[in-house]
């Protein structure tokens, strides 16, 4: 079946003399349905362009979909209902229109698809949610018999279609169909594919077009020449982690070859393995295959699983996460199911990743966050090696320990979950967490796996930590001893400059008011006792004639006074000079100089 839509703008004329906005849905070479945005459906004969039948609908039409037999079609409407029509029977629907999520007012069903199968037909449509409760949801409902799922997307649905296993029609008429294999949805922020052959209608893993901004990107780190052993472990861990989340079926859309990849295969060239690590606002680090044109997601490390949420309730210990609320979820109506990876909202801004460092030789990962924490993780050994979940240890280092007058007024540090343990599965396992005080955002990070050291810098100083022996090495405070306010997390404090700027603004305001009226001149009138209306008329007359000049500040210049009496003279250079405001350079804040922006480990010789 081939379906195409043709738009005719408002005011255009259809070949049959109907004015308005039309969409033409064609299924065969002979028949098509024109649906204006009114209450009439018109079936046309495509070759002769003749009106074969007219069908009357009580609601405004949104979409029309043919049945594979060509003898039936379905229509969706702006009140959240859909109806089924028989081509040969009357001008009314074969049965009453169905408002699935009624009886209260619902949003319009913008698109409807009818896919027949040998058992129960598939019905897929977007929209139709109750206006009062779920008008802000972006949904696609899928129904097959008693099975009903409402896929809930985090961004607006642009369009969707199905991938059918066999053609739904043939030259001989109706043919048995196995139904659609997958549902492909184009949302505003991502592309999503759902396997309709699986029992639970799981998502399909995307080989390309993966949304990099599933959560807001806060930092990136590139690693080249990754060893094969580390690469294989990361790929295997990613597959194991997504085994129950995504369908195991391969990607159903094939076609096309990249010219560069084809040439490299013909020449037998082996590309170096490259990783791109992206840190996100939700505390996750995602590993991307950066060898080709499109990035492919390999693995995801979630540092947020180690910490409790902002409200003090562990996200992984909640009843919803443990499955104790499963019965309530099943009884929910409509039966929503979240799909997609785009999630622009973060539970706690302190979870955001600021810096990432990966040693490809040892498989050591360091993740630094906004709350002054550094997570140290090691890649797990081979899959056949049995390991126990290690206990995560937290070590605190005080950078401003030698500053007795320092007071931190920013956010609190993250608290570790009571049941926090390193993952016993494949992938990166957390071994320790370094917490700096004050818990300011990490501005620089350096890792040296051979020495077993990690260094981190903030706006207050730096710390050096031995993550193998779990021992602090040294701390260095870079704050000015004369400025220990610690106003907040912002690396640059503008408290003093704001007070100074406000004070100078008031001074300029008072100075301008004093210069606005000349000495001996009353407020609102000239010195000679003229009325305000006379002064205003005189100024307007001078401006209209072009011979008058008004000085800055609102006082009338001597030249303008002379022009009122009819004697206009040339302006002196002093009078013609515009009023200039003195611009003062702002002093450099001490907190700006205390920020550690870069750290690097180097081997050198010291000459005494």
From TrEMBL:
GO terms for molecular function: GTPase activator activity; myosin II binding; syntaxin binding. WD repeats lie at residues 275-289. InterPro entries: Lethal2_giant, LLGL2, WD40/YVTN_repeat-like_dom_sf, WD40_repeat_dom_sf, WD40_rpt. Residues 317-338, 480-499, 506-588 are annotated as: Disordered. Coiled coil: none annotated. Keywords: Exocytosis, Repeat, WD repeat. Residues 577-588 have a biased composition (Basic and acidic residues). It holds the Pfam family LLGL. One of its GO terms (biological process) is exocytosis. Residues 98-202 form the Lethal giant larvae homologue domain. GO terms for cellular component: cortical actin cytoskeleton; plasma membrane. The keyword Repeat applies. Residues 544-557 have a biased composition (Low complexity). The keyword Nucleotide-binding does not apply. Gene3D superfamilies: YVTN repeat-like/Quinoprotein amine dehydrogenase. Belongs to the WD repeat L(2)GL family. This is Lethal giant larvae homologue 2 domain-containing protein. It comes from Ladona fulva.
């Amino acid at each position: 079946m081939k379906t195409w839509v043709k738009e005719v703008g408002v005011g255009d004329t259809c070949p049959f003399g109907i004015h308005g906005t039309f969409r033409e849905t064609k299924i065969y070479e002979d028949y098509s349905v024109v649906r204006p945005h009114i209450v009439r459906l018109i079936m046309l004969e495509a070759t002769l362009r003749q009106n074969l039948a007219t069908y009357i609908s009580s609601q405004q039409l949104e979409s029309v979909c043919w049945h594979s037999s060509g003898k039936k079609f379905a229509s969706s409407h702006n009140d959240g209902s859909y109806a089924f029509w028989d081509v040969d029977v009357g001008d009314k629907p074969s049965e009453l229109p169905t408002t699935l999520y009624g009886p209260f007012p619902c949003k319009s069903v913008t698109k409807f698809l009818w896919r027949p199968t040998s058992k129960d037909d598939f019905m897929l449509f977007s929209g139709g949610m109750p206006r009062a409760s779920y008008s802000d949801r972006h949904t696609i409902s899928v129904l097959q018999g008693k099975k009903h799922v409402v896929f809930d997307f985090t961004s607006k649905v642009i369009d969707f279609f199905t991938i059918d296993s066999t053609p739904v029609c043939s030259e001989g008429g109706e043919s048995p169909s196995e139904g659609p294999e997958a549902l492909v949805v184009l949302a505003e922020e991502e592309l999503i594919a759902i396997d309709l052959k699986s029992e639970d209608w799981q998502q399909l893993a995307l080989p390309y077009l993966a949304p990099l901004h599933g959560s807001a990107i806060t930092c990136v780190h590139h690693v080249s020449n990754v060893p094969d052993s580390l690469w294989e472990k990361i790929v295997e861990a990613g597959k194991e982690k997504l085994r129950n989340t995504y369908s195991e079926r391969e990607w159903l859309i094939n076609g096309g070859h990249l010219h560069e990849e084809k040439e490299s295969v013909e020449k037998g060239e082996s590309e170096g393995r490259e990783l791109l690590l992206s840190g996100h606002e939700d505390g996750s680090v995602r590993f991307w295959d950066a060898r080709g044109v499109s990035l492919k997601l390999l693995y995801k490390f979630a540092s947020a699983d180690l910490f409790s949420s902002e409200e003090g309730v562990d996200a992984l210990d909640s009843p919803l996460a443990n499955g104790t609320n499963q019965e309530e979820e099943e009884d929910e109506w409509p039966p929503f199911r979240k799909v997609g990876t785009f999630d622009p909202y973060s539970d706690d801004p302190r979870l955001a990743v600021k810096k990432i460092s990966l040693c490809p030789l040892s498989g050591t990962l360091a993740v630094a966050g906004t709350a002054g924490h550094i997570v140290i993780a090691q890649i797990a050994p081979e899959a056949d090696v049995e390991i126990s979940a290690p206990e995560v240890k937290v070590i605190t280092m005080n950078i401003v320990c030698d500053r007795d007058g320092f007071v931190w007024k920013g956010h609190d540090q993250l608290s570790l979950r009571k049941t926090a343990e390193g993952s016993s599965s494949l992938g990166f396992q957390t071994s320790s967490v370094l917490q700096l005080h004050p818990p300011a955002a990490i501005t620089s990070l350096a890792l040296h796996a051979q020495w077993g050291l990690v260094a981190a810098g903030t706006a207050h100083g730096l710390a050096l930590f031995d993550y193998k022996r779990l021992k602090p090495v040294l701390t260095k405070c870079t704050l000015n001893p004369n400025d220990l306010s610690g106003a907040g997390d912002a690396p640059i404090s503008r408290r003093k400059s704001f007070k100074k700027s406000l004070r100078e603004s008031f001074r300029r305001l008072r100075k301008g008011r004093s210069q606005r009226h000349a000495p001996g001149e009353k407020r609102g009138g000239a010195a000679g006792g003229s009325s305000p209306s006379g002064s205003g008329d005189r100024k307007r007359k001078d401006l209209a004639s072009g011979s008058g000049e008004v000085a800055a500040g609102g006082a009338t210049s001597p030249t303008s006074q002379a022009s009122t009496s009819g004697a206009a003279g040339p302006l002196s250079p002093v009078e013609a000079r515009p009023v200039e405001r003195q611009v003062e350079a702002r002093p450099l804040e001490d907190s700006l100089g205390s920020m550690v922006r870069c750290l690097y480990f180097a081997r050198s010789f010291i000459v005494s």
